[in-house]
Specification:
It comes from Nonomuraea longispora. This protein is α/β, with parallel strands linked by helices and 366 residues long. The protein has 13 helices and 13 strands. Bound molecules: 2-succinylbenzoate and magnesium ion. The site of 2-succinylbenzoate has 11 residues, from loops.
């Protein structure tokens, strides 16, 4: 496939409510979109890097810089999606930037071929069950109202963001109010250390599906020491940046579940490799999210439909984060989202909406 040029587009998407985690509070999402243009089709990739390097080392200005300065110049004149990672291999890290480029190339390739992401990746279902990630709140009553609203909307699983000082009490309150049948899990975004093991074991009483990333990003060994001290299964998010990390985590016993975020690990092809690896080892995977717009959401929903994704993902409806999405909104039906079936991502940006939220565009001729 010959790429004639690439547009880097920045959009500012206000959130319907502030989203607070152990690493910060977001009120607006600053998203970098990559649009690859070929003679036959165009393709979109959404970069999941956030404004600041607090979730991981990448951040959106840095991603734009590495894409324009190092990644696009490294692409050969003719490239398909499978060749992108190989061409970009000499550049270390920057997986979020690489994922955005690869996804845009894959989208263009699939649109030209008339094949959907779901079909290409190996989706085995037409719709996926949806969970929702619930931020840290100022008070427990406020949290209970938020959870009640999401359960009313049909979400089949609740994930509570936790941090020291906001863990056992909110979990207990949600269990007491909504009962033991609610699928419930927590996400610490690396806010604890191994010396907190006995405190974290207090969560064992609440029958959680999992605890996500309790310890630091680079601490596979310490997670392996923590896991046997908890009955709550340990799930890794930030720690897993590649299939190699996933293999190491499984071998070390650092986790028994993995949150697969294509953006974090370099793209959907690597995500499928992690899915296959985990499936072979009996390790459950689920599809995480990074507050994606409809473009990134479409691809995540397709991935979440693979057979090894046995737990509900953070694949919520568009309005969980955005009053107006840049694509037709994803809307829950019976707690599920449909996997788009059209070519490529199967969704398009709505030009007027896209223009309204655009803060900058840059055209790069290849
Ligand atoms: O740790 O899963 C995370 C959002 C931004 C950065 C990290 C995380 C999250 C979420 C929200 O939990 C997932 C989503 O709904 O998109
Ligand atoms: Mg997480």
């Amino acid at each position: 496939m010959k790429i004639t040029g690439v547009e880097l587009r920045r959009i500012a998407m206000p959130l319907v409510a502030p989203f607070r985690t152990s690493f910060g509070t977001e009120t607006s999402r600053d998203v970098l979109l990559v649009r690859v243009v070929t003679p036959d089709a165009e393709g979109w990739g959404e970069c999941v890097a956030m404004s600041e390097p607090l979730y991981s080392s990448e951040y959106v200005d840095g991603a734009a810089e590495v894409i324009r300065r190092f990644l696009l110049p490294a692409l050969p004149p003719n490239v398909d999606a499978q060749g992108v990672a190989r061409a970009l291999e000499p550049v270390k890290g920057h997986r979020m930037a690489k994922a955005a480029v690869e996804t845009a190339v894959l989208d263009a390739q699939l649109r030209a071929a008339g094949e959907s992401f779901g079909r290409f990746l190996g989706a085995s279902r037409g719709r996926v069950p949806c969970g929702v990630s619930v931020g840290i709140m100022d008070s427990v009553p406020q949290l209970l109202d938020a959870v009640a609203g999401y359960l009313d909307e049909g979400y089949v699983r609740i994930k509570l963001k936790i941090q020291p000082g906001w863990d056992v009490e909110p979990v207990r309150a949600v269990r007491e109010r909504f009962g033991d049948d609610v699928l419930l899990q927590v996400d610490a975004n690396a806010a604890y250390s191994l010396t907190d093991a006995r405190h974290l074991a207090r969560l064992d009483a609440f029958g959680l599906l999992l605890i996500e990333q309790p310890l630091a990003n680079d601490d596979l060994v310490q997670h392996a020491k923590l896991a046997p001290q908890l009955t709550t299964p340990v799930c890794l998010d930030e720690s897993i940046e590649s299939a190699e990390h996933a293999a190491a985590a499984i071998a070390l016993g650092s986790c028994s579940i993995i949150n697969v975020k294509p953006g974090r690990i370099g793209g959907y092809l690597e995500a499928r490799r992690i899915h296959d690896l985990c499936r072979a080892h009996g390790v459950a995977v689920w599809c995480g999210g990074m507050l994606e717009t409809g473009l990134g959401r479409a691809a995540n929903v397709a991935l979440a439909a693979l057979p090894g994704f046995t737990l509900p993902g953070d694949t919520s409806g568009s309005r969980r984060y955005y009053a107006t999405d840049i694509t037709e909104p994803f809307e829950l039906a019976d707690g599920h989202l449909d996997v788009p079936s059209g070519p490529g991502l199967g969704v398009e940006p709505i030009p007027a909406v896209l223009d309204e939220v655009t803060t900058a565009t840059e055209w790069i001729t290849l």
